[in-house]
Amino acid sequence: MLHGPKHSNPKDRFRIPSRSHQPATPDAVHLAFASVYKINYLLTWNCKHLANAVIQSRLQPVAQQRGCPLPIVCTPLQLMGTIEYEG
Question: Which is more confidently placed, 51 or 23?
């Protein structure tokens, strides 16, 4: 992995202040890496914490402030669009 100020740890660059001092969850780390490395889509089944419009609206200003684009976070089914089922 690259080191230095330009290549600092993504989870530290995208750290969001919180009331608790708990370590970042794996979901937060995935979102941080996707944002810092400018990944367009982050697929997840976690609709409680990641693929959630309320959470995304709270994270968008944080991402913009840090100069990191927030990826589109969605479930695999949302990315695939409408699926015609045989039946």
Answer: 51
pLDDT at 59: 87
Domain count, the chain: 1
Residue 45: both structure tokens together: 């089944």
In-domain check, residue 85: no
Question: Domain range holding 38?
Answer: 5-14+24-80
- Residue 10 pLDDT > 90: no
- On whether the CB atoms of residues 73 and 46 are closer than 8 A, the answer is no
Query: Looking at residue 39, what is its pLDDT?
Result: 93
